[in-house]
């Protein structure tokens, strides 16, 4: 009887912990362009075709967090990048952040530390820092991060999670802090930049979780080596981008997540960007209608299957505490907010109607 009671208590505590863990998971999307779509009068529709208010509808789909990017001075971005949605300056993000917090979401702020897109292929130095001495760049990062957060906190738009950089596997503020994850050059400067950004976050938003975001989820050696360089850095979450067309099969991601749990057991892991194509219509980068179809068809059903398999896998990993879709708000129906289509959102670009992947996505936060 005594052994039976012990087993019962253990199982009860395990179930309790699992339930608590499920409740703590974050689900949402990077909807940085939503204010622009709403300003253009864009209509979003549910699966029955009824018009909806996106922030209200996302809550119905179990979302509890919203991610928004911040550029240093997007007015300096190229016309091409502005046409792709680069417009999020401090005023834009502060006003949107106020709305996000008012609606009861957790707010993830994504510092790009550039005037335009920051990703594996480009981490351009902002215009305002091009003539700053390299030794002073950590101070520039600190002051900019601190000042931006002070504005948001004062306005009632305090972030709950903060990315210090966006997809920075290859460093930031190129060329001076450009790194190779398997190389040795410029790491001292990159770490100093990240330390300065993290310090400002801790001072102004002490309760916020700090995220370091990379995009090599399909390359364990690069991911491990990268975060090994940051062993002394003060941060909370390993943030990963995972797109099946660039980062290999879901099973490869699963192996990376297992390895992160072993090598970095004190860090939460969040998939801060994911998405999959449902079409290549009006897509300026696609060379054919079936490009990137190695794992999933380029159809709405293919997108749904991907989402189902990704969510099912992520729910098996206790260290994964967040999942965010990138650009789910894309909806070209009745507007010209962007100059081309990406077709990886969760709404149909022709009708504005929600796609089947949305329901699969919501299962991430359901009790295990």
Automatic annotation (TrEMBL):
<dbReference type="GO" id="GO:0045490">
    <property type="term" value="P:pectin catabolic process"/>
</dbReference>
<keyword id="KW-0378">Hydrolase</keyword>
<dbReference type="InterPro" id="IPR011683">
    <property type="entry name" value="Glyco_hydro_53"/>
</dbReference>
<dbReference type="InterPro" id="IPR017853">
    <property type="entry name" value="GH"/>
</dbReference>
<dbReference type="GO" id="GO:0031218">
    <property type="term" value="F:arabinogalactan endo-1,4-beta-galactosidase activity"/>
</dbReference>
<protein>
    <recommendedName>
        <fullName>Arabinogalactan endo-beta-1,4-galactanase</fullName>
        <ecNumber>3.2.1.89</ecNumber>
    </recommendedName>
</protein>
<dbReference type="GO" id="GO:0015926">
    <property type="term" value="F:glucosidase activity"/>
</dbReference>
<dbReference type="Pfam" id="PF07745">
    <property type="entry name" value="Glyco_hydro_53"/>
</dbReference>
<keyword id="KW-0326">Glycosidase</keyword>
<comment type="similarity">
    <text>Belongs to the glycosyl hydrolase 53 family.</text>
</comment>
């Amino acid at each position: 009887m005594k052994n039976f009671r012990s087993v019962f208590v253990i199982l009860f505590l395990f179930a309790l912990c699992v339930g608590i863990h499920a409740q703590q998971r974050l689900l949402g999307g990077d909807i940085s362009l939503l204010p622009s779509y709403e300003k253009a009068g864009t209509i979003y529709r549910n699966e029955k075709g009824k018009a909806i208010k996106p922030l209200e509808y996302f809550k119905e789909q179990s979302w509890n967090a919203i991610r928004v990017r911040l550029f240093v001075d997007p007015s300096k971005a190229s016309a091409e990048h502005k046409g792709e949605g680069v417009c999020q300056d401090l005023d834009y993000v502060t006003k949107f952040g106020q709305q996000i917090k008012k609606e009861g979401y957790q707010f993830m702020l994504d510092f790009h530390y550039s005037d335009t897109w920051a990703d594996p292929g480009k981490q351009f130095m902002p215009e305002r820092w091009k003539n700053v001495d390299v030794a002073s760049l950590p101070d520039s990062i600190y002051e900019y991060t601190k000042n931006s957060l002070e504005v948001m906190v004062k306005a009632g738009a305090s972030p709950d999670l903060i990315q210090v950089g966006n997809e920075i596997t290859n460093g930031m503020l190129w060329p001076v802090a450009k790194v190779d994850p398997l190389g040795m050059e410029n790491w001292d400067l990159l770490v100093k930049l990240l330390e300065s950004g993290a310090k400002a976050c801790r001072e102004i938003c002490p309760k916020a979780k700090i995220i370091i975001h990379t995009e090599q989820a399909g390359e364990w050696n690069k991911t491990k080596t990268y975060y090994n360089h940051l062993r002394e850095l003060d941060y909370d979450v390993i943030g990963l981008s995972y797109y099946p067309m660039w980062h290999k099969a879901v099973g490869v991601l699963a192996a990376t997540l297992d390895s992160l749990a072993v090598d970095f057991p004190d860090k939460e892991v969040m998939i801060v960007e994911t998405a999959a194509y449902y079409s290549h219509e009006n897509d300026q980068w696609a060379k054919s209608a079936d490009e990137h179809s190695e794992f999933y068809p380029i159809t709405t059903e293919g997108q749904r299957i991907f989402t189902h398999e990704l969510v099912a896998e992520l729910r098996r990993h206790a260290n994964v505490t967040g999942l965010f879709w990138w650009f789910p708000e894309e909806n070209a129906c009745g507007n010209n907010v962007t100059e081309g289509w990406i077709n990886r959102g969760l709404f149909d670009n022709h009708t504005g109607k929600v796609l089947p992947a949305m329901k699969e996505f919501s299962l991430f936060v359901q009790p295990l």
